Automatic annotation (TrEMBL):
PANTHER family xrefs: BIFUNCTIONAL UDP-N-ACETYLGLUCOSAMINE 2-EPIMERASE_N-ACETYLMANNOSAMINE KINASE, ROK (REPRESSOR, ORF, KINASE) FAMILY
InterPro entries named among the record's database cross-references: ATPase_NBD, ROK, WH-like_DNA-bd_sf, WH_DNA-bd_sf
Record's protein name: ROK family protein
SUPFAM superfamilies assigned: Actin-like ATPase domain, Winged helix' DNA-binding domain
Length: 404
């Protein structure tokens, strides 16, 4: 049986949908101009998409000579995805719709009990995010979960995640699927951050990049030629295990990483305690440094030197066009400026150092990019290889103010 007509039709449908997603409201004549398809083909596809509830008429063109034309846009909430950023201290959940609008998120402290308690917390927050944004939960098709560790695709676990207990022995993917009743995709949170920055952040259009997150821990998402680098065991970018900062042969270094022991939140607080003889949280240490506290300034300088060495390590291997720093610690100007100062002292070639434009929402946005790409392909490509819909550029994507 000749399948060519069906394949051709599917490619045409994807082209029409891509034009509407990127440029809607848009007329059939404008779609024809962009796609090269005949007006008859576009009319037939538009009728099919409208009948199926994916697009809708929005009005008519105006201000042109001649007859006005019907314009179309996608029905944003015809289907949605949940995007979740799970951290050691906070978990965030948001909804992204078919128009690539990332809706307001809901946030709360991560359940310290870990394991199934966190799974159920994520499921509850997904439902709350849908309700908060006026989305019927039945419209949810999948959930993308950014995790602070390495997803094990064979067993559904998350390994190398010391900040969320119990995920290394639990089939997290299956448990979440049972709770939510939708397809689940687990991805390293920093990988999602790199994807988010590449899509609509400070590295848009930069296909060779590294995103380094520094907060509770330290990690990197690396893209080469526009493709995420995962590595054999899905653990590429685990910067915390670079063998410097502390003794990499100590048992604690095997658990959380030699570099993470000195650059993460716990390490920074411990170092300040050692020097100053008193305790402060990390924001307090930054505040003290701003007031000239000698111990705080020393800790900040030491941390920046370690981060500069980590940047140099990535640059020596992947040669990124840009390195983006982010996270609750990594995105602070006091640290970024020092990293820019120290990097030329340990690496011979110029490296552009940027700061995340998406801030705390970067993994949420990356999850939306992954989920919406998958959703559009599932809904409109019809299983035809190569038939796909690219995500719209940054100027089209909308971010709704996060919930307080």
């Amino acid at each position: 049986m000749n399948d060519a007509p069906r394949i051709s039709r599917q490619f045409s449908l994807c082209m029409v949908m891509e034009a509407i997603v990127h440029c809607g409201p848009i007329s059939r004549a404008s779609v024809a101009k962009q796609t090269g398809l005949s007006k008859q083909t576009i009319s037939e596809i538009a009728r099919q998409l409208e009948d199926d509830g994916w697009i809708r008429e929005t009005g008519r063109t105006s201000g042109h000579v001649g007859r006005s034309a019907v314009t179309y846009e996608i029905v944003p909430d015809a289907a949605c995805i949940a995007t979740i950023d799970l951290g050691g201290t906070k978990v965030r959940a948001a909804i992204a719709d078919l128009s690539c609008q990332v809706l307001a998120e809901v946030t709360e402290p991560t359940d310290e009990r870990g394991g199934l308690h966190v799974v159920r917390q994520i499921a509850r927050l997904c439902r709350e995010a849908a309700e908060h944004n006026g989305i019927a939960y039945e419209k949810l098709r999948m959930a993308v979960v950014g995790v602070p560790g390495v997803p094990d695709p064979q067993h559904g676990r998350v390994v190398m995640a010391p900040n969320v207990s119990g995920f290394d022995t639990l089939d997290v993917k299956a448990a979440l699927g049972a709770e939510l009743g939708v397809e689940i995709l687990l991805e390293n949170d920093v990988n999602l951050a790199a994807i988010g920055e590449h899509w609509i952040g400070s590295a848009t259009g930069v296909d060779d990049l590294a995103y380094i997150a520094l907060g509770t821990g330290i990690g990197a998402g690396v893209m080469v030629g526009g493709t995420l680098v995962r590595g054999f065991g899905n653990a590429a970018g685990e910067l915390g295990f670079l063998p410097f900062g502390t003794d990499p042969f100590e048992a604690e270094s095997l658990k959380v990483g030699a570099l993470e022991r000195v650059t993460g939140t716990v390490g920074i607080r411990r170092r300040y305690q050692e020097i100053a003889g008193r305790g402060l949280d990390v924001p307090g240490i930054f505040d003290a440094a701003g007031k000239g506290d000698a111990a705080a300034l020393q800790v900040l300088e030491e941390t920046a030197r370690y981060v500069a060495r980590a940047v140099a390590s990535i640059c020596a291997i992947t040669n990124p066009g840009k390195v983006v720093l982010g996270g609750s610690i990594g995105g602070r100007a006091e640290l970024v400026n020092r990293v820019r100062e120290f990097l030329p002292q340990c690496f011979p070639y110029p490296v552009e150092i940027g700061v995340s434009e998406l801030g705390s929402r970067v993994a949420i946005v990356g999850g939306a990019a992954v989920g919406l790409t998958h959703l559009h392909t599932t809904l409109f490509a019809g299983g035809v290889p190569g038939a796909e819909i690219s995500l719209p550029p940054a100027k089209v994507v909308k971010l709704v103010e996060a919930a307080q």
